[in-house]
Each structure stands twice: as C-alpha cells, then as structure tokens.
Specification:
The chain is an alpha+beta fold and 186 residues long. Helices cover 61% and strands 9% of the residues. The N and C termini lie far apart (54 Å). Helix 3 (65-82) packs across helix 5 and helix 7 (142-148) packs across helix 8. The chain is built from 9 helices and 4 strands, in the order E-H-E-E-H-E-H-H-H-H-H-H-H. It folds into 2 domains: 2-63, Alpha-Beta Plaits (2-Layer Sandwich), CATH 3.30.70; 67-179, Arc Repressor Mutant, subunit A (Orthogonal Bundle).
Length: 186
C-alpha cells in the first residue's frame, strides 16, 4: 500500500518514519522521500497514529491527490538538484513531465497555486541551501560548486546567491570560518 508524506525531505526524515513504522509493527517494502510502500494495507486507525507521530517531526500524511502530486513534484525537484552534476544535459521541465505523466504547464500552475511560489523559485531555494552546505563543508571552490550545480558560471552562481541571501559567497564563507574556533584557540 502506498502512503504519501508531506515534508519528508531528507534522509533523517526517512529514518524517523522507518523507526515509527517499526515501533507500530507495520512491515514495509521501501521508504523514500515523500513515499512509503507497506507490505500490507494500513488501517485508518494506524494511519491516524502514524500521522500523529510524524507530525512531531513536522511531517504529515497526505490524502488528497493534489497534495500527493505536490509532494511528488518536490521529490523530483530535490532529486534533480541533489544530482545536478549528473543531470547537466537534462531539461527539468521534460524530466518532471515524464516522471509525473502530466504537462509541465499543469504541474507548474498547480505548484504555484498550492505552494505560493514557482517551481523555478523552489529549485533556486534548494540550490542556495546546497551551496551553503558545500561552502560549510569547505571542500570545493566556488567554481567547482558552480559546476556541480550546473550554473553557467561562477558569476551567475554568485549573483543568484547574493540575491537570495544578501551575502556574497566570500562573506558567507568568512562568517562560517569566524564562527568556528579551533581547539588550540580556546
């Protein structure tokens, strides 16, 4: 049985839901972002209990078709941004239409109506968070980050980051370095 979950956006969420289902004794085939596939049917009481449990972590079960479709859009988008380096030759609108079997126009309009933002703005927000993560880890240069996330140039990455955060890439990196005090300086 398929069960859809709103705001299940990271691996920690997957682990939390898996542990909750284990505690409830509900056997599963697989869990991925936004989706649970159980081995058996789940009763309405079990769904209610599950919903109450996962709400503590900011998630909730979805029942309406529109909500399910929105979560599928988010899942495809998160996967696209997470694997951007491997998707450099893939047009997102074509990918989304193919994955969800609806026209991009329909999906885009539905997403904008329900989420009060565009799919494109959602992609930018995801990219900005990914950029922050990569800067904090400090393993990649700005040009390597631009390449990983399919920006046409470091300048494009930089201007989009500044527009979204109000900070330059260098300033954000400097803030990260200022916050961390090495053990020998304590």
């Amino acid at each position: 049985m398929k069960i859809y979950v709103k705001n299940m956006a990271c691996q920690s969420c997957v682990i939390f839901v898996r542990e909750t289902l284990d505690e409830m004794g509900i056997p599963i085939y697989k869990i991925e972002l936004g989706e649970i596939d159980t081995k058996n049917d789940v009763s309405d009481n079990e769904k209610k209990t599950l919903d109450n449990s996962i709400k503590k972590a900011g998630m909730e079960l979805l029942e309406k078709k529109q909500g399910v479709l929105i979560e599928k859009i988010k899942k495809v988008t998160v996967d696209y941004v997470s694997n951007a380096e491997d998707m450099s030759d893939v047009k997102f609108s074509d990918l989304l239409s193919k994955e969800l079997n609806h026209s991009y126009t329909y999906l885009s309009n539905l997403f904008s109506e329900v989420e009060a933002t565009t799919i494109q703005q959602y992609i930018i927000s995801l990219k900005i968070e990914r950029i922050k993560e990569l800067i904090i880890f400090g393993e990649d240069s700005f040009s390597e980050i631009a390449h990983k996330l399919n920006y046409s140039s470091t300048a494009h990455l930089s201007s989009q980051f500044k527009k979204a955060t109000g900070l330059t890439l260098s300033h954000f990196k400097a803030l990260r370095e200022k916050r961390r005090i090495t053990i020998d300086k304590i």
